[in-house]
Write a structure and sequence with these properties.
six-stranded mixed β-sheet, seven-stranded antiparallel β-sheet, binds zinc ion, alpha+beta
């Protein structure tokens, strides 16, 4: 997926986890038929019927996933299940009980070898994780809809969908929009294939390396949607990314776009041969964002959907699964997507370098960068990958993003590998080598080709490809929190990093604040900064500076009246009482990060730069 857009705040001044649950014991395969009934759009109710035949066990456990692969957050989809019932082959009611919040145990003995589970799911969220059914469409993500039969995730199944005849059914199951019955080799594949049904999606198709690439656009934004620019951009992107990696093993891939001005947040979610991309806004005004998201999601075809950490396929849907490798799965995917935007010609060299500069700025602004490693950030994704927060947290000061630092590690590794191999190898050679070694390995589980990697396999692959030991790099920057060596890595390509506070920047008070009607509310205090030293804390309200009332938008302007080192009286309101607190202002925080060409670069540096920044394949 792509990282969520964060609420914009203004900065004033500037492992190894528990063992996986034991695999379920193999049971004789069931014959499984899933039926989706979409007849109650006004109630946003999706009806699911699962018929299991050839049942010999005394009971069957039907389990609703707690999470959906690609989004590392426990959502407990069972909370939207209603009206569960179970019947046997002759329609006779079968007794059932809940074992826990997500498991329905059905007594199967009286069913004559057949158990039919029937339930409704409330679905009214348009996102890459949840589902939505209303009068305009059904957009369904499998984990939020379909139960599995415990012990039978590996069994092949049939899915049939009842939708209005004039609705097109679009999914990675079939290139036909009128087909209503599909085969899935197992449950994981069923839920890895989102479904869109609607009357008015625009569909287009093109070929790349003999693969069929479908693009569906369902727009709530523009009256007359013209997807031609989106299509042209996607063609360039797909061409660029397919040239970077070995050919993927699908015949057809589906981009499923939604443009919706009314939703609160967009999304992007990767799947084996499709992706859901939901943009908040319209196609005409959000084309660049749509293409950026597509660049990221399409590279997941290789990185995370096929080349995957061992715990990410097959999946334990009942609880969190932990991996330290999301910096590679998500962050490096982001870095390669930037590279693909450059190679495809959709971005200029300047745009590419500016975005990397922005990523550097974002990390260098995080107090958590000295506290949390990127492996730890990956491991703890379950705390903050769009997980609802039930209590206040100190994330603003104590965490980093594995997308952000992972993208920067991608850049640093890429340049360092090119430097150590005199430009003969790059990070893409490492990703290809991992893909060959793990995805093209003998099939280890029912899930599909190959097997998953462990974090240690990444270092081994880098060392093999580069013919050089990267242990120190991984110790310092992947497992550790040492400052990232931007200047050293960029110099391999004759580039440098300029960091400065722009002329006229105000002195810093060292807080992140949010505007309030009566001043500025402190959201986070930078450890060791001016506010921290003066004892200012979270939720304090800064209501006046030097006895003059403070309008939130004016704080930077007010601070410009002082020099760093000045002691300035702030009126601070906390717990309903006001007091004067003197803050000794810090120097302006650097907010301008620019990657620049170094004068006097050697021919080898220039050769690496030109190869890295080339705009074609
Ligand atoms: Zn992603
Ligand atoms: Zn739709």
């Amino acid at each position: 997926m792509r990282r969520a857009l964060l609420l914009i705040l203004f900065l004033l001044a500037t492992v190894v986890g528990p063992l996986r649950a034991a695999e379920e014991p193999a049971a004789p395969a069931l014959q499984l038929e899933y039926r989706l009934i979409l007849t109650q759009p006004n109630l946003h109710l999706v009806t699911v019927e699962i018929t299991a035949s050839k049942v010999s066990a005394d009971f069957l456990d039907f389990v609703m996933p707690a999470w959906s692969p690609g989004r590392y957050a426990i959502y407990d989809f069972a909370k939207n299940v209603q009206e569960f019932e179970a019947r046997g082959g002759q329609g006779q009611a079968l007794a059932w009980s809940n074992l826990d919040k997500q498991t329905w145990r059905v007594e199967a003995r009286g069913g004559g070898g057949i158990v039919k589970a029937h339930y409704g799911v409330y679905a009214n969220d348009l996102s890459g994780t949840f589902s939505q059914f209303d009068s305009t469409h059904a957009n369904l993500n499998g984990s939020s809809i379909f139960m599995y039969v415990a012990g039978h995730k590996p069994d092949p199944l049939t899915l049939s969908v009842d939708v209005p005849k004039d609705w097109q059914l679009i999914s990675g199951f079939s290139d036909s929009t009128s087909e209503r019955t599909f085969q899935a080799p197992n449950y994981d594949r069923l839920v890895d294939t989102p479904l869109e049904a609607c009357a008015d999606a625009k569909l287009a198709q093109f070929k790349e390396q003999g693969k069929s690439i479908r693009v569906a656009v369902h727009s709530y934004g523009d009256d007359k949607v013209d997807p031609s620019k989106l299509l042209a951009g996607l063609q360039k992107l797909v061409h660029a990314e397919m040239a970077l990696m070995p050919a993927p093993d699908f015949g057809s891939y589906t981009f499923l776009f939604h443009f919706a001005p009314e939703i609160s947040m967009g999304d992007g979610m990767e799947h084996l041969n499709s992706t859901q991309i939901i943009i908040r806004g319209s196609l005409s005004s959000n084309l660049a964002e749509a293409l950026e998201t597509a660049a990221h999601e399409f590279f997941h075809v290789w990185n995370v959907k096929r080349l995957r950490p061992a715990v990410l396929g097959p999946f334990d849907y009942t609880r969190e699964v932990y991996t330290p490798s999301l910096w590679l799965a998500e962050g490096v995917t982001t870095y390669v997507s930037y590279l693909a935007l450059l190679r495809s010609g959709l971005w200029t060299r300047e745009q590419f370098l500016a975005r990397l500069s922005d990523e550097i700025h974002a990390l260098e602004e995080e107090p958590g960068r000295t506290l949390m490693s990127v492996e730890s950030s990956s491991f703890h994704a379950w705390f903050y990958d769009r997980a609802p927060q039930m209590q206040e947290t100190n994330f603003a000061n104590s965490t980093i993003s594995y997308y952000n630092k992972g993208a920067l590690l991608g850049m640093l590794l890429d340049l360092e590998i090119q430097s150590r191999t005199q430009g003969a190898k790059s990070l893409l050679d490492v990703l290809s080598a991992l893909y060959h070694k793990f995805y093209e390995a003998p099939q280890a589980t029912y899930y599909g080709p190959g097997r998953g990697y462990e974090e240690r396999d990444v270092l081994e692959a880098v060392n093999e490809v580069a013919g050089s030991d990267f242990t120190g790099f991984f110790d310092n920057y992947v497992r550790g929190t040492a400052p990232l060596p931007y200047a050293q890595a960029l110099s391999a390509a004759g580039l440098g990093l300029r960091i400065r506070a722009p002329e006229g920047s105000p002195p810093s008070v060292g807080i992140t604040g949010v505007p309030d009607d009566r001043g500025v509310r402190v959201f986070a205090v930078q450890p060791g900064g001016a506010a921290d030293r003066a004892g200012v804390g979270r939720d304090d309200l800064l209501v006046a500076v030097d006895d003059q009332p403070l309008v939130a938008e004016d704080l930077n302007k007010r601070l410009k009246a002082y020099l760093p080192g000045a002691s300035v009286p702030f009126t601070v309101e906390r717990s309903g009482r006001q007091e004067i607190v003197y803050l000794t202002l810090d120097p302006p925080v650097p907010s301008s990060f620019t990657i620049l060409e170094l004068p006097g670069a050697t021919p080898q540096q220039i050769a690496i730069r030109n190869r890295w920044l080339r705009a074609n394949n």
